[in-house]
Amino acid sequence: MNYETQLVGDVPANMLDEPEERPIWRRRLMIGAVIAIVLIAIATWVSMRGKGAETGTAQVQRPVVTVISPGQSTVSHMINATGSLAARVDMPVGVVGEGGAVTRVLVQPGDWVRAGQVLATVERSVQTEQIRSLAAQVEVNRADAKLAQAQLDRAKALVSRGFISQADIDQRTATRDAANARVNVAIAQLAEQRARTGRLDIRAPAAGLVLTRTVEPGQIVGSGSAVLFRMAKDGEMEMLAQVSEGDLAALRPGNAATVTPVGGTAQFAGRVWQVSPVVDNQSRQGIARIAIPYNPAIRPGGFASAAIVSGTGSAPMLPESAVQSDEKGNYVYVVNGRDEVQRRDVQIGQVTDAGVSILNGLNGNERIVASAGAFLTPGQKVKPEASKSR
């Protein structure tokens, strides 16, 4: 027993503890490994989640835009022009007769008159007395002619009885004929004087609208006087559209036009009735005369703009919201196959309620941003959605 006790007592203390310490270190190693694995898993999960969030954010940040493919539409080719308004047939009215003092003016600018209507009268007291004198002279000559006829009839009754020779009959016949001729001369002179007196009145040469009046009662007028009235025959108006030399060649009589007087929003339908055969050698412009019906808003001498239809053709038609403009000109945004926005310069044509026609820059098959183009930048990625209206 003492021997065994001595052996045991001689064993080192760390040798006696080894069996107990080995499981503790193993557990610590295992716990460390598990913790490391958990940390790696968490890091991987966080990394993957971050990438997914970034991808989702990128998708959310892509703006949704409505796109349209306009195709080709039938549009009218328009020529825009400006010019002045005027009466289609401008009639100046002045003194026809010898003139005199104006006694009455019977019309005002804006009045409608018929052909031959008196516009103003001229004092005629002298002419009236001359008419009376000539009328009396007609009666005198008629009395002389009546007496000559009676003398001729009596002479013829005496020829068969031999009291009057044939030469006397011839003389009395000539006297009767001369008397009748004097009657006709007096009647003609009376008619002439009446016509002269009638010409003292200022009359409308045709039915139409009085445009201006430059005469007042008491004014002395004569054959050399200026124009007293200006009239528009039948009230017809026109626009003298100034058209460039190139556009003038495309116009024909009968082309439809829309005229808009300056200072108003009213538009009037008209039609080209004459295209100038000459071009001004300085301005290189010609005149297209557009006939338009009368309207109080159309004032001769005023200014107006016109849109003249010179023909029809095919072109893409876009809403006005799709067309942008800057210092470089007009443009639209096109979405390419990679859903990227690209700027496309275009030339616009007629602007109507149906939209804007594109003369150059598009073929109609592109995907065009329909609106909100001002908030996009070239190269930006978008999420396109087709318009439901097309």
Automatic annotation (TrEMBL):
This protein's GO CC annotations: efflux pump complex
GO molecular function: efflux transmembrane transporter activity
Ranges for domain YknX-like C-terminal permuted SH3-like: 318-383
Keywords, alphabetical: Membrane, Transmembrane, Transmembrane helix
Transmembrane found in the keyword field: yes
Matches recorded under Gene3D superfamilies: 2.40.30.170, 2.40.420.20, 2.40.50.100, Helix hairpin bin
Domain CzcB-like barrel-sandwich hybrid: start-end pairs: 99-227
One Pfam family this sequence matches: Beta-barrel_RND_2
Transmembrane region(s): 29-48
Superkingdom in the source lineage: Bacteria
InterPro entries, alphabetized: Beta-barrel_RND_2, BSH_CzcB-like, RND_pump_MFP, YknX-like_C
Domain CusB-like beta-barrel, first and last residues per copy: 241-309
Statement: the UniProt record of this protein carries the keyword Cell membrane: no
Similarity comment: family membership: Belongs to the membrane fusion protein (MFP) (TC 8.A.1) family.
PANTHER family for the chain: HLYD FAMILY OF SECRETION PROTEINS, MULTIDRUG RESISTANCE PROTEIN MDTA
Protein name: Secretion protein HylD
Organism: Sphingobium chungbukense
